[in-house]
Design brief:
Blueprint lengths: L14 H24 L3 H29 L2 H8 L1 H9 L10 H7 L5 H29 L4 H12 L5 H21 L5 H17 L5 H14 L6 H28 L3 H10 L4
């Protein structure tokens, strides 16, 4: 006969209790890394964003060449993944990669909303500048890809404001934020390469609506001079896709993950030094 308060209940711990230490450790690491991003000086922040645009531009180059040569969208999407491999290995950064770590840091009061907005705006602008330069060089150097560039850019420029385009953007934001979370779950570079390739393939293969990637494709189409859309169409697509990306990254991935450890979030907010 077991003692009062004894028995199997004292021996077998709930599954959640075994997972909790790992979740809390991951949470603490994400808060720390997000804080570093928020505190990054302006020049390194700009250069990291510019390189992010250049790296994705390399992926666009590979995509357009393979699309032109094969006419196969899935093969071209696979070729594009070189851009996200470059992002990882070069330690550059995309606007949409900042929907997890720095947001968690702000929630934990290890950073401010002003710092977060600064990070988002500077990174997005730098991504677009770097991507624009790459698009210009691609169009001048490789006239054979003009038709593919116009076709790809036109697809996103004409999505318009609709539930379809909104959810394409939401899915894109969720995919990239999940990519970030997966890469920060391990210290192994080899393992980090897996989501870099697979998630990039999902993003382009499914033709999701990504603010930076699709802007570079639209830039390439516009710079050929043959596009059936204009700069205002690009600007509208950028604003709508960025909004959807934010919703997807913040709600579907970051917000739900924070709900798994509400007590740890409350503790870190109580200990945080910023408002």
């Amino acid at each position: 006969m077991s003692e009062p308060g004894g028995g199997s209940g004292d021996v077998v711990a709930p599954t959640g209790s075994r997972e909790e230490p790992e979740l809390e450790e991951t949470y603490d690491r994400l808060v720390g890394e997000g804080h570093e991003r928020l505190d990054r000086p302006l020049l390194p922040l700009v250069s990291t964003g510019l390189l992010g645009g250049v790296d994705v531009g390399v992926g666009v180059l590979a995509y357009l060449v393979v699309q032109t040569e094969t006419g196969n969208h899935l093969l071209a999407s696979l070729a594009f993944t070189v851009g996200f491999v470059a992002l990882l290995l070069a330690n550059s950064e995309l606007f949409t990669e900042n929907f997890l770590l720095p947001v968690i840091s702000v929630v934990a009061k290890e950073g401010t909303v002003v710092q977060l907005l600064r990070l988002w705006v500077v990174t997005l602008v730098a991504n677009l500048v770097g991507g624009f330069v790459m698009a210009g060089m691609i169009v001048v150097a490789l006239p054979d890809v003009h038709a593919a560039a116009v076709e790809a850019g036109s697809l996103y420029a004409h999505l318009g404001v609709s539930w379809r385009s909104f959810f394409l953007a939401v899915l894109a934001g969720a995919v990239i934020t999940l990519l970030t979370r997966m890469q920060h779950a391990t210290d192994s570079l080899g393992v980090k390469l897996v989501p870099a390739v697979t998630m990039a393939f999902v993003l382009v293969g499914a033709q999701l609506f990504h603010s930076v990637l699709d802007s570079i494709l639209m830039f390439a189409g516009l710079l050929t001079g043959d596009a059936d859309y204009g700069w205002f169409d690009w600007l509208g697509a950028l604003g709508w896709s960025a909004f959807g990306n934010l919703v997807g990254g913040l709600v579907l991935v970051t917000g739900i993950r924070l709900l798994r450890i509400p007590h740890r979030v409350a503790e870190s907010r109580a200990q945080g030094q910023t408002g």
